[in-house]
């Protein structure tokens, strides 16, 4: 990585009223996901009602922040030009210990990565906002 | 739940030569040109076409697409719709056209897709979950999604970079026999593929389709009207479709996709085994897509596509089961959504026996696959030549 992530000018999330609690929590260093009180499953990304049972019983709960790497890619030629100064960087699919998978930015700090590696939540400033990134270990 | 297809026939095809740039030409012009070709190939007058299936036109005609196209073409269809399944849109149109004809809602359907490629195209105006939860992390565009699928496949089965590159090399080799292909006259072997720049690991540049302008059209009609075409009628023998997700993070599996049940269903309707299929016309936006499709089709065990391709003697018209003889989209170019329809058009040529220097001997059946988004929108068709 040649440029610091804070200096990037890249698209941020398109936050809606429904997803705002998720992004607000990230700012204060917490990973909040939804839990269904009807079918007891965890839900990510945020929904209006549970996508598993279609019952309106979702409550925000703090996730453990632990997960494992399901897959990853080292990006050399990004889809958005704003990311070019940060190449190469790693994106990955993080399977949270609660069940759902989220795509995230993986901060490897120079380490080699492999599918199955353990990860932990590491809120990080990218551009002018804090995003729910992950670190190895 | 089963379908039997008996009243619909593919009788016309049209195809534009892919181009890297089309300064000042709009999509409508291309759609009209390729549609006229297909109507002429089917031996039909424009007034005889009473059904219209089109694709979405992001940025140019966001709404009322069928009415806009019909008006431009001077048509007044009695059945029309937008089929919005990404790369599966083309094959998805074929069974929908056949279903509308079977139901008696119309007699002859024009299925058409195409796109211009002008210098400045607006960035996507999307405001959906993929835009909110993938893009901010540096993962915009299809490349990273398919790289994630490929990495997961490699990690699970231990396939080598050479295994995947063989698919791109095979597509390039086939493109050398198709003067229409964007890579005609530009062969590339496995070493060339692996020496091309890494775009997003493990995907090399030459494992990714080249975007081009172009257009593809297909006419589906009744057996009676199909007699007006000079060519052998091509029958729809089976179809399957499934949509499982949109963003790659939400995929139920990273190594097997919705083509698996779609192909199984199409084969079941056609009462055929995949090993009996004469031509495999497999959607190939990336090398990993063909690898996953060979495995999902049941041609070999998961993870064994590399050995299967070697046993198949490659992908050419003389292979045991030839694959993507037009060069695939990896060799022909990807005219946006029309890219998926190239696999239908090439299958029709092979079944008619009009594929020229790349004709497969005695080609009687074809499996056509379409794939959209992140290995998440799938359509499979079994086509056969009329006896
Ligand atoms: Zn629920």
TrEMBL record, chain A:
SUPFAM superfamilies: Nucleic acid-binding proteins. Pfam families: OB_ChsH2_C, zf-ChsH2. Residues 60-118 form the ChsH2 C-terminal OB-fold domain. Transmembrane segments: none annotated. Residues 23-58 form the ChsH2 rubredoxin-like zinc ribbon domain. InterPro entries: ChsH2_C, ChsH2_Znr, NA-bd_OB-fold, Thioester_dehydratase-like. This is Zn-ribbon domain-containing OB-fold protein. It comes from Pseudohalocynthiibacter aestuariivivens.
Automatic annotation (TrEMBL), chain B:
InterPro entries: Thiolase, Thiolase-like, Thiolase_C_2. It comes from Pseudohalocynthiibacter aestuariivivens. It comes from the Bacteria. Keywords: Acyltransferase, Transferase. This is Thiolase family protein. It is an enzyme of class 2 (transferase). Its EC number is 2.3.1.-. CDD domains: SCP-x_thiolase. GO terms for molecular function: acyltransferase activity. It holds the Pfam family Thiolase_C_1. The keyword Lipid biosynthesis does not apply. SUPFAM superfamilies: Thiolase-like. The keyword Transcription regulation does not apply. Residues 240-384 form the Thiolase C-terminal domain.
């Amino acid at each position: 990585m040649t440029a610091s992530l804070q200096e990037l000018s890249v698209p941020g999330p398109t936050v809606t009223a429904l997803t705002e609690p998720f992004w607000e929590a990230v700012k204060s260093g917490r990973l909040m996901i939804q839990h269904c009180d009807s079918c007891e499953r965890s839900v990510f990304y945020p929904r209006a009602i549970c996508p598993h049972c279609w019952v309106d019983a979702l409550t925000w709960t703090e996730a453990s922040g632990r997960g494992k790497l399901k897959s990853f890619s080292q990006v050399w030629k990004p889809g958005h030009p704003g990311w070019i100064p940060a190449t190469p960087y790693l994106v990955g699919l993080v399977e949270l210990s609660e069940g759902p998978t989220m795509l995230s930015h993986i901060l490897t700090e120079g380490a080699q990565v492999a599918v199955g590696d353990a990860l932990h939540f590491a809120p990080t400033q990218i551009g002018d906002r804090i995003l729910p990134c992950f670190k190895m270990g | 739940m089963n379908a039997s297809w008996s009243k619909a026939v593919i009788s016309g095809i049209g195809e534009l030569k892919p181009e890297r740039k089309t300064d000042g030409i709009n999509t409508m012009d291309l759609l009209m040109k390729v549609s006229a070709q297909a109507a002429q190939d089917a031996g039909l007058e424009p007034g005889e076409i009473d059904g219209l299936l089109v694709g979405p036109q992001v940025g140019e005609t966001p709404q009322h697409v069928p009415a806009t196209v019909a008006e431009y073409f001077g048509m007044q269809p009695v059945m029309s719709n937008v089929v919005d399944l990404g790369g599966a849109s083309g094959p998805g149109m074929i069974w929908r056209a056949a279903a509308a004809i079977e139901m008696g809602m119309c007699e002859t359907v024009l299925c058409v897709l195409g796109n211009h490629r002008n210098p400045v195209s607006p960035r996507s105006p999307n405001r959906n979950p993929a835009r909110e939860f993938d893009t901010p992390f540096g993962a915009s565009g299809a490349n990273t999604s398919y790289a994630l699928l490929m990495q997961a496949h490699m990690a699970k089965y231990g396939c080598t970079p050479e295994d995947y590159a063989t698919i791109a090399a095979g597509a390039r080799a086939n493109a050398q026999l198709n003067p229409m292909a964007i890579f005609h006259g530009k062969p590339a072997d496995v070493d060339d593929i692996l020496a091309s720049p890494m775009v997003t690991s493990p995907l090399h540049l030459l494992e990714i389709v080249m975007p081009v302008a172009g257009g593809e059209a297909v006419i589906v009609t009744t057996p009676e009207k199909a007699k007006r075409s000079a060519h052998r009628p091509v029958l729809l023998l089976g179809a399957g479709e499934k949509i499982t997700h949109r963003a790659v993070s939400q995929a139920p599996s990273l190594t097997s996709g919705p083509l698996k049940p779609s192909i199984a269903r199409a084969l079941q309707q056609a009462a055929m085994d995949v090993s009996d299929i004469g031509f495999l016309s497999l959607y190939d936006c990336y090398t990993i897509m063909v690898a996953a499709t060979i495995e999902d089709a049941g041609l070999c065990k998961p993870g064994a596509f590399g050995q299967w391709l070697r046993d198949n003697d490659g992908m050419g018209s003389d292979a045991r089961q030839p694959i993507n003889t037009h060069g695939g989209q990896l060799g022909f170019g990807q005219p946006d959504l029309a890219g998926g329809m190239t696999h239908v058009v090439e299958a029709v040529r092979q079944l008619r026996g009009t594929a020229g220097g790349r004709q497969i001997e005695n080609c009687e059946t074809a499996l056509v696959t379409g794939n959209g988004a992140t290995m998440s929108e799938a359509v499979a068709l079994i086509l056969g030549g009329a006896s």
